[in-house]
Amino acid sequence: MQVEDTRSTGTTLPALGIVCALLAGIAVLPRVFTRHEAVAAGRPAPDFALDLVANGPSALGGAPAKSLRLSDQRGHAVLLDFWATWCGPCRAQAPIVEQAARRWRDRGVVVLGIDMDSASEGDPRAFAVDNGLSYPILRDITGATARAYDVDSLPTMVVVSTEGKIVAVRSGITDGGEIERLLRRAIGR
Fold it and tell me: 3-class SS at 123?
């Protein structure tokens, strides 16, 4: 009895090449994110003033206002969450950020959501209301603030120390335990 070889010889090499390329890309990602943080960590956080679209300074215990400036938060650790209403991972991260905002508010930590939607894309105020977000939501329609922080993907989280220096940058969904660790580092505990 003769056994017939039914393997295709023409498709094995291209498929193997694709698998190798994907594995190499996955192996490089942690280095890219680490490099991004290493470049940013320790440098002064760029100042900005952005329009408030939800949960103004009164959510932080201050007077009502139409905009918020980062430099006015000096003395507080600040968590900046760059996100957009159309971003699925951002939507998944919103309750994690809300939990951190509530947990750390009494310890002097300020959480600011920075919405990256264009004027025609989404309604960050409605998103904040629908999702029970209590922290201030700012809008960076031009993307100037995101560029100042080298944000190239969403969500991106930036943690700023009480002295106004960048402590950490995280791209992608960041879990609650990691946020806790980074905020402790930002307040020096």
Answer: coil
| DSSP 8-state symbol, 6 | -
pLDDT in tens, the chain (189 residues): 555 544 445 555 554 445 444 444 444 444 344 434 544 789 999 999 999 999 876 555 555 568 999 999 999 999 999 999 999 999 999 999 999 999 999 999 999 999 999 988 999 999 999 999 999 999 999 999 999 999 999 999 999 999 999 999 999 999 999 999 999 999 987
Going across the sheet that includes 67-69, the strands are 67-69, 49-54, 137-139, 110-115, 78-83, 156-160, 166-171
| C-alpha span between 45 and 74 (Å, rounded) | 11
Q: What is the pTM of this model?
A: 0.77
Distances (CA, A) of 11 to 5, 16, 17, 19, 24: 15, 9, 10, 13, 20
Q: Token digits for 139?
A: 């809008």
E strands, the chain, in order: 49-54, 67-69, 78-83, 110-115, 137-139, 156-160, 166-171
Two tokens, residue 22 = 């994907």
